[in-house]
Write the C-alpha cells for this entry.
Amino acid sequence: MPSKHARPSRPRALHIATAAVLVTAVTATVANARPHRTTQPPEPGSTATAAATTSTGNGLDDPRMKDIAQQIVSSAENSSLDWKAQFAYIEDIGDGRGYTAGIVGFCSGTGDMLDLVEHYGKLKPGNALSGYLPALRKVNDSSSHAGLDPDFVGAWKKAAQDPVFRQAQTDERDRVYFNPSVMQARTDGLRALGQLVYYDAIVMHGPGDGSVSFGGIRAAAMRKARTPAQGGDEKAYLAAFLDARRAAMKTEAAHGETDRVDTEQLVFLKAGNLDLRPPLVWKVYGESFRIDG
C-alpha cells in the first residue's frame, strides 16, 4: 500500500475524476517514502544553524510570514487562500491513502492522522475522535475505511469545531512539516522563499531520504548546486531544488502537474523575491491568486 506523504498536487475538486489512475501510479513509486517519525531537524546548536540564523533575517518563523506561506500552500492543496477553513476538510480522494483531512492532508493510511488523533486525545481525553483510535491503528498503511465508516467523516467535521482539535492540527503540522523544513532551510542559508519551497515540498512529498521524498529532492539539488551555507548562490541553488522537485513530481501521475513549481514558486524566484515580500501574484492549476500584504 502507499507509504507516507507523497501528496497529490492537483486541487481536491479534481481528484475524484482521476482516482483510478492515481491508485495505480502511486503504488508504483511509494517505496521511496519513509514514515515521518524518522525525520529529525538539524541540531539547534550546530555551526550551520547559527550561520543560517544570522544570514536569513525574518523568515517563516515570523507569524505573518508563516500565515502567508500557509496561504500559498493552501492555494495548491485546496484551491483557496483560506487555509483555516480546511480544519474540517475530509474525503477519500482515491489515492490509496484512505481518508485525507485537515490543514495539511493528514491521511488515515499513512500514520500522520493516527498521530494527530492520539495527540488530540492527550490534549482532550475522551474527545469525539478517541473512539476511532483502534480503527485508525488497524487501517494504517492501507486504504481501508474499516471501523471508520459510516460516522467518521461526521465526527471529524464536528471535532473541527473544537478549538482544541484545531490546536492539535497546528501542533502536528508544525512538528512534522513546518518546523523541520524551516529549520533545514535556515541551516542551508535560505531566506523566506527558500523556506516556503522546502515547506511546500515536505507537505507534498513527505520527509525521508527516498528519491521522491523531501530529503531525496534536497540531495539531488545539492549534487547540482551548493547551498548558500556552503558558499553557493541562493537563486542558483533554489533553481536546482525546483528542478529536482519537478523531476520527482513527474514520477507519479498524482504529482504530474507541476504548476506549484512552474507558475508559483519559480515566478517568485525569477522575480528575485527571496524574502517573499508582498504583493505576491501567482497561478496554480489555472486559478489566479494574490496576497497584498
